Amino acid sequence: MSQHRQDRVVPERDQGPHPVPFTTPRKHHSVLRGIRKHLGGLQQRDIDEYLLELDRERVESPYFDGSWSSSDEDITSDVSDDEYLPPMSVGEPQPESELEFSGFSDYEGESEEEEEAPIVAGRDKTESDGESEGDGPVGRVGVRSRAARASARPRRRSQRRGSLGEGSSSEGDEGWLEDPTPPNMHPFTATPGLTVPVPLTALGFIQLFLTRELLEYLVAETADYARYCREELQTTLSYRWQGCNLMDMAHFLGLHIFFGITPAVDVRQYWRRNFFLSTPNVPDIMPRDSFLALNRYFNAFNRRAIPRNNPDRLILVRPVLDYIRERSQFLVVPSQNLSLNEGMMPYKGRLSIKVYNPKKPKKYGVKIFFITESNTGYVVDFSVYSGVFSTLRDTVFGLVDRFRNQGYHLFMDNYYNSVSLAQELYEAGVHVSGTIRLVRGAPNVLKRFASQPQHLDRGETEWRRKGDVFIICWKGVRLVPMITTSYEPIQEEVVQRKKTRRQGRVTYEEFRVQRPTVIGHYNRHLGGVDLFDQLIQYYPFARRTRRWTQKLLKYLLQLALQNAYILYCGYNSDTQRLSHFQFLEVAGNALINFNPEEWPSNTAPLPRAPDLPLEDRADVARRANLGRPAPADAAHAAATLDDAAPADAAVAAVPVPAVALPHIPMSRRAVDRRRAAHLQ
Q1: Is 661 within the bounds of a domain?
Q2: Would you state the torsion angle of the CA atoms of residues 62, 65, 70, 72, taken in this order, to the nearest 10 degrees?
Q3: How much is the pTM?
Q4: Pair 371, 343: CB distance under 8 Å
Q5: For the chain, give me the number of helices (H) and strands (E)?
Q6: pLDDT-based confidence at 263, cuts 50/70/90?
Q7: Least C-beta-crowded within 10 Å: which of 506, 520, 522, 586?
Q8: Which residues contact 544 (CB under 8 A, 6 or more apart)?
Q9: What is the DSSP letter of 379?
Q10: Using CA atoms, how far apart are residues 105 and 85, in angstroms rounded to an integer?
Q11: Can you tell me the distance from the alpha carbon of 89 to that of 75, in angstroms, rounded to the nearest whole number?
Q12: How many domains does the chain have?
């Protein structure tokens, strides 16, 4: 190896008045460190001999001028022992009994974070950093004794901060006491139940939400939007628009309900003529082109009534959203226990109000805040997140404002709860219980349990109270902090099961633990929103689309049908209750076999927004920014509509010169598609 290094010829451009000294490649140190760490193929003595040989070759090189390069100093100062093994100094290796290499420590209980900065070799392990011995160049790093490194190791967190009781400051603990007296409870004064006469049939419960007034409003807005698109936007479809009436809208919604029960990959497959894949009765109910045209123009708000600088991002669905929300609030007086949580309407298209929540099964979509009955999952109220900044306090009070001073009990998780919010809700006559993040107003003595949970044994509880607000920390498998204004910190004995698997056999071990009563009530009453999400996902008919307004409208109709089914299960007097599948089947049959006499008008009609002047409309301003003509300049486009006669017969009779179009070959996929359509 040495002979090979001495015979190497250096190019002329590299030689000068001061030849470039040969430096030990750093890659050797990283390779050796990797072998030592992962493979364990080399012993410490072998590595020392190899590094010593590299340094000896360096000194014997004809290009070595007796001085060490600045790169060696950089290695000792800038490169840590975690990246490279620094070069060894010239001379015999020192005995392992006196020196230890920091890069190859055999002490397994020491982490990399606990290592101090390496000290320079050649110094005695008892000397300070300012002293050195030996006249040779210092090029070796990281030699420390095991005792010195153990003494320099940082102390544990408990040793640095002291025990839980030592050094505890009373700052932030003012007003927090250890008084277990139960809080003062607000009496529950509401009378739960329906506010209307109980319907006698399943169709009666459906008509509580899906009213004739709602169907007539959707018919009017859909027909108006079709005129708007064809007259002002000048859009055309391959499907001929034949108008829309109440019967068409009922058939359209009824087919959607059945499509949710029997899903298909594409909605067009329901009209296929294949013997094995066809759905016989669907073409008899509504032609395919009529269904697709109605689905294209399905709308819930007048596009000519959207003002400039519109602050409401949900204005296109606002009338239907408010109508279903008001019906849900008006029809039922909920029971005492309520749960508040957020849900997700799945949507992956381009939308400014779309959110991402990695903890939800559907991670992308429109977030909706729900407040439901804890035991049934009935949606009492909801609020769609529109991207407008609002605090958690405003969100919670916007949903529970109608329950003030009635003694309701609200269950929330730690995303919403805080000490200040619990105090405000208690003053408003609403009790609250749920988990809490201790950084949101908890006393310091309880915050320390979050950082040092080992001070609590399993089944042990610590609590503090401030007025009628309790914060209870219970140690189960992990620390569980709770906040409540309705439960005192009394214990209850529960039986838990521990699952163990040994040699392929599963055994269960039962043991008894003590836990606060608020935890059991929280586990029973928080799942109202989760129950609603579970039921609404069984038969969803909101199909995948780029139009978020249609997706949200159909989701709201699903919500209405789900609330109707929950009321049917709770207040129906039939001995044999219909299942969820059978209830939706009744709804679909009633819409497909629509009889106006069976759908009386029970509520006031939904008001329609009037048209705005051209200078105040948002669509006119948007088209002006894009350089497109205003609706007044495109009035002549009405003559080209399918359902309109030519405005001037003479103009229509003028022959149009034929234009030779270039031949465009069809792709293989287009040919297969045309053949399949011909076979059908």
Answers
A1: no
A2: 60
A3: 0.67
A4: no
A5: 22, 13
A6: confident
A7: 506
A8: none
A9: E
A10: 12
A11: 12
A12: 2
